[in-house]
């Protein structure tokens, strides 16, 4: 392990590390050897380091590290910088600049999986780990400075100087007055996955016995064909599905529906607002050529069986593009319920058998931590004799309760309360996004409500499933069909303590490494206290038009790569003479797992202004 130490004063910290097994220490300081040699205990520590094979480099500027090391010697596994400071009475702005330049410099000499350790005095960092925490504007804003260089804060713990043998903290340039290390914190940073700009993607599916292709809505490009439910997956969503299936299989004869479920729908959904659907238009006359595809004009995606679509070939494509009239359009399935109903109509359901369907579904929705534009739904369908439906529902709910209780107890040991509540007792405003949309699809009779102790007081619980019954003469006049729909993503979040749905879709391998195949564990974030940036936007709404807030949020998702976490209406104004209406919104940018800099957030805000001007025809103010 190659360790780089920066800003050493008397080299006592370097001397304490030098004896570590299989560790090669490179200790540096800003001053020259002549300056350092006169400092207390410095000469003794330098001699000790050299005797043990450590490298010592003097006059090193921490903002230009690559200048001091040959390319083959730049791959440091760990970089330590204890109590950086510009010196004298430098304010927070100067020290932020120092940190920013240091992080950019460190990125050039750090190994891909390396760590950067920065120790700061209590309060300087500006994170909630500081006690007391300084106001953000009066701190060094360390997480924001690191984000500009592509780093995230992965751990923070007390800097215990008294446990480091022989260590003596010195002040700036080894002045007599040393830094106050009481309450000091060691901040550990790691590299972040980069924010990506995805190319347009073409998806190939089979629709009504015809091979078709369509352009995936840009906001969903990184969420298509992720394979969370494939057999070789170790994603927590897959584990929740398997555990539930096993639990229900102990109470019911069970059959997984292995037929191909259509990704695209075109039948009318009663009461569902069209603005909540991802519309796809089919245009047979516009077929992308193989040459266009090979030149990267679009990324081809073939859905696997686990994603409920068949692989298709490019021959015989029917192309689909967004933007045609609704009469010519299909939409991405917002629920598996229509798929289940189609199976019933084909007569493929066996009375008394529990049939299981699962797969991703897509819905436009407002931005919120637990509001998901795409998630994995699991639907159970069972036909039973009339008069026995209530007992069957209770058996289903009890099996679901037992499975979830077992999972949650294994993961956290905390209490979880699952209850069956009648839908009529809820107002629409009380429902979360999942429950509200399900209620639009068809009459919902019960909600499966889940409360977890780890949730804050303002988040008392969530609807994780819905139950409805139907009398279908196509099955039998003597049978009642029971449908149970579960949101697997929301269940995984609540069981594993994942506070943001976006984390489920991260490509960072540190997420899945926390979940060995078949196991659920309490999630530990690898990006702590991510910085957030607020931007306001105001505009005039087109005369005589209803403002589409769902479209507004969807555009924000797209241009920000899902880094907008909150959109709040902060002002509404009606011009007394012109009658025009003006709206002002506040957007909060924050990534739960990637480094997001202030500059990048500002660029996204400018792009957002341009997009809503063009697509929503608003007049910016």
From TrEMBL:
Q: Which residues form the FDX-ACB domain?
A: 528-621
- The organism's superkingdom is given as Eukaryota
- In short, the EC number is 6.1.1.20
Q: Which Pfam families match?
A: BMT5-like, FDX-ACB
Gene3D superfamilies named in the record: Bira Bifunctional Protein, Domain 2, Ferrodoxin-fold anticodon-binding domain
Q: Which GO terms describe its molecular function?
A: ATP binding; phenylalanine-tRNA ligase activity; rRNA (uridine-N3-)-methyltransferase activity
> Its GO biological process terms?
rRNA base methylation; translation
Q: Where is the signal peptide?
A: none
Record's catalysed reaction(s)? tRNA(Phe) + L-phenylalanine + ATP = L-phenylalanyl-tRNA(Phe) + AMP + diphosphate + H(+)
**What PROSITE patterns does the entry give?**
FDX_ACB
Q: Where in the cell does this protein reside?
A: Mitochondrion matrix
Cellular component per GO, a single term: mitochondrial matrix
For this UniProt record, the keywords arranged alphabetically read as follows:
Aminoacyl-tRNA synthetase, ATP-binding, Ligase, Mitochondrion, Nucleotide-binding, Protein biosynthesis, Transit peptide
Residue ranges annotated as coiled coil are none
Predominant cellular place of this UniProt entry's protein: mitochondrion
UniProt-listed InterPro entries: aa-tRNA-synth_II/BPL/LPL, BMT5-like, Fdx_antiC-bd, Fdx_antiC-bd_sf, SAM-dependent_MTases_sf
**Family, as annotated:** Belongs to the class-II aminoacyl-tRNA synthetase family.
Q: What is this protein called?
A: phenylalanine--tRNA ligase
